[in-house]
Amino acid sequence: MTWMLTKSGRKVDLLNPKPDMICLDDIAYHLARINRFSGATSEPWSVAQHSIFAAALAEADDHGAYSVLWTLLHDAHEAYTGDTSTR
User: Fold this and answer.
1) Is there a contact between 27 and 16 (Cβ–Cβ < 8 Å)?
2) pLDDT at 87
3) Does 47 reside within a domain?
4) What is the rounded CA–CA span in Å between residue 70 and residue 10?
């Protein structure tokens, strides 16, 4: 199977995604339910929490609106691929 069904009911072809398949609400919903670091934290920490925290740091460091938005969305793909721990 090369597609997934999202919370909103959209069908996303993982091998051939199109812009109309992607929904920010789906990204937020899915990332809020994916544990960061494969769940190896003392308290639950979602990919969404990580993304918001990172964006807040970028904003506090005055990196500009584009960089803050990029930071907020840097793991958006994980809503469709999952989070892969590398360390």
Assistant:
1) no
2) 64
3) yes
4) 24
